[in-house]
Hints:
By secondary structure, chain A is α+β, with helices and mostly antiparallel strands. Helix content of chain A is 19%, strand content 36%. In chain A, a hairpin with a 4-residue loop joins β2 and β3 (39-44). Chain A is elongated, with a radius of gyration of 15 Å. In chain A, 31% of the residues are buried. With 445 residues, chain B is of the alpha/beta class. Chain B contains 13 helices and 15 strands. Chain B has helices at residues 8-14, 20-23, 43-51, 92-100, 102-107, 128-149, 171-175, 226-235, 268-280, 299-310, 393-411, 415-425, 433-436; strands at residues 26-34, 56-58, 77-80, 85-88, 108-115, 189-194, 209-213, 253-258, 265-267, 285-288, 314-318, 342-347, 370-373, 377-381, 386-390. In chain B, β14 (377-381) and β15 form a beta hairpin. The radius of gyration of chain B is 26 Å and the shape is elongated. The chains are: A alpha+beta (77), B alpha/beta (445). The interface between A and B is medium-sized, with 29 and 40 residues. β5 (66-68) of chain A pairs antiparallel with β9 (265-267) of chain B, so a sheet runs across the interface.
Amino acid sequence: MIRVSVTIADEHLAEIESVAGALRDRGMEVEHVHDALGIITGSMPDDSRQALTAVDGVASVDEEMHYQVPPPDSPLQ
Amino acid sequence: MMDPGTSRAQDRADAGFEPELSRAQTTGRYVITFAEEGADGDPAALLQSVAGLSQIASSRDFDAQAMDMAQTEGADATVFSELAMAVVSVDPDQLGALQTSTDAQRAVVAVAPELIHHIMPGSAGSSPDYVRGYRDGVGDLSGRFLGSTGAVAAAAPTIPAHFEDDDRATWGLHATQVLSSARSGQGVKVAVLDTGMDSTHPDFVGRSVTVQSFIAGESAQDGHGHGTHCIGTSCGPKTPEGTRRYGIAYEAEIFAGKVLSNAGSGADAGILAGINWAVANDCAIISMSLGADVPQPHPPYTHAGRRALRRGTLIIAAAGNNANRPADPGFVGAPANSHSIVAVGAVDSDLDIAPFSARSLPGRGGQVDIAGPGVAVFSSWPMPMKNRTISGTSMATPHVAGIAALWSEATGYRGLQLWATLARESERLLLPSVDVGSGLALAAP
């Protein structure tokens, strides 16, 4: 499974819950539906990017990125 | 060091910028600015009753208010109704009435002589001789600079720039004119998405603080220090116990979202959840001192930033520390390289670019938008250490976020209007715009 953020297209923001349902039907494990932002986060099977991107109302499927700040004792933060 | 009690605008006026007006050419007419709200009646009626003007042309008389200036020539007054302004021809008695009568005092905000504007202000006009002289002068000047240094050197506006921490405050608060601000961030909600916050720290006793962890298995308590330091700068106290001031919006409501773990790491899901939380709680500002060194804008942040702006939330993010100047100027990383998110670069106490501060990327959104103090920044640190001095664009970002809270309080602006205000009000620096954008963020008066 790959962790992803799925961005909903502007014109489908009102139907974000049904888009989430369609994503689940295609194998996505939906963790959070952020309706203030129109973004759904969770994970997807390795080979399902195309299937999720094809869902009506999906603007973008993006692999999760990671962020790291330096250790507390670093003078540069 | 500059006296923090003196505004730089005042310095400029003292240095002779203001007297320009006395040498300007005027038409003999006056420009009247009316109050937008609370004025009794319309401007035309007031001009009639107070100054006795009868020939009044109004932009409302024209289709789509496209005023034909030829048709207004004979008028005593021309009213621009969308601007609540008028240009009037009046004698001294009428002028006096417009400035001092009771009705006028309520309805008139300003009376100023109408100025004549030229392409070259204060020049001798645009005669062929003048233009030739100008061309020759520029040619001579550029020749001398190119001949001697190989580059055109600009004349510096000589504002002294060196700041130091003193008993009152950090250098960064002096440089950004926070000490002379009448604002405190009161009524403004500021979210800081970071490693959480030390809720036991004396700096935040008695403050309105909402904490939330978006890291599984960890409370919002800051087990790192980075988050507490950032909150100390953006929202710390006016008079911290036993030391100098470093906090900007000292009466803002704090929303501390933990999206980076105690080990300093986080991922999109938690950060997006934090942004969603801040937007849903109607925060005016989100400060995010985090990033990944990737040059491509990350679509979820571009959309999240745009949608947050639409809801009145401005996201301010660190440009990144991936530069190693002068050899390598680096690049703005994600999420700051999204065009819907403000990217903050770092300057030092001489207002020079910090050696680590990332430079703008080519392309949409990849630019540094503004700069803040980011070298040797003293602020809060989790107890028992209490305070610590560190550097980074992470430290510049909460300066800009705190200043944004002051502007939001002062103007009521949110979203893009607040962004524009930060940019418009920032101090231009003699540094490339690719490094500092519009310059150093300055506090609201």
